[in-house]
Design a protein that fits this description.
mainly alpha, single chain, about 70% helix, about 0% strand
């Protein structure tokens, strides 16, 4: 009924973002209405101004979509890092566009007055932190089957063909994830001087020769390293090939 307070939906995490989204939506509506009132048809010719309004609307839409997805999934805990990143990125970009819009508002006096309304305590969202970036990067690097990663990749085409770059990247991630404990053993062996390689010998083979690693463990580390090199190496050409190429260009 009239006057009834409707609670903010979601859990403790998403409720704060719902409130932030409501604040930005109200600020956008106010600035859009005032821009139309002050400029009328000239707003379309003020392309930077109208573009920033469009940017705010776009990021508000992305924020709404992220919140809806999280809410529809039942607010799963494993999706919280992804929600936080998406909301901080979208709300941060929306605030950046609002900030620039106020800096360049046609009426400077009105722009200063609006800034007090829109940002009474300054900007609240400046984008994802380095710590949050690292948390999401670690999530993306997890092996297949992880619920957050599977949800993130839902609906995406994941090729499995031999030689496909995406398939090679996934294989490298899987092998490196499986070999992570062995890498710790290898690093400890190197630290203790039990994997000192002879000329032309790899540290992995040296660790196997010293007994720090079993032969099968060394094989798994080599396979992971080869998969890693396959996705990070760039094309290499010998000097003779480069000279022939330069001659054709000339």
């Amino acid at each position: 009924g009239l006057g009834r307070f409707e609670p903010v939906p979601g859990d403790a995490l998403s409720q704060g973002y719902f409130r932030a989204l409501n604040r930005q939506a109200a600020a956008f509506a106010l600035l859009a209405d005032l821009s139309m009132m002050l400029l009328g048809g000239a707003l379309k010719r003020r392309e930077r101004l109208s573009a920033r309004l469009g940017d705010v609307l776009s990021y508000l839409y992305l924020s709404s979509a992220a919140l809806k997805r999280y809410h529809d999934l039942g607010s799963p805990e494993h999706m919280q890092p992804l929600l936080r990143w998406a909301m901080e990125e979208s709300l941060g970009q929306a605030e950046k566009a609002l900030d620039k819009l106020l800096d360049n508002f046609p009426n400077r006096f009105v722009g200063c007055a609006l800034r007090v309304l829109v940002f009474p305590f300054g900007r609240r969202h400046t984008g994802p932190s380095d710590e949050l970036d690292a948390e999401v990067a670690a999530l993306i690097g997890r092996s297949k089957g992880d619920p957050a990663l599977e949800e993130l990749l839902a609906g995406c085409f994941r090729p499995q063909a031999e030689g496909d770059p995406v398939a090679a990247l996934q294989r490298a991630c899987d092998l490196l994830d499986e070999a992570a404990p062995l890498h710790k053993v290898l690093h400890q062996a190197i630290k203790e001087g039990n994997a000192y390689p002879a000329p032309g010998q790899s540290a992995i083979d040296a660790a196997v020769a010293s007994g720090a690693l079993q032969a099968e463990e060394g094989y798994r580390l080599h396979a992971a390293e080869q998969a890693r090199r396959a996705v990070i190496d760039v094309d290499a050409f010998d000097k003779e090939m480069l000279r022939l190429t330069q001659g054709r260009i000339r």
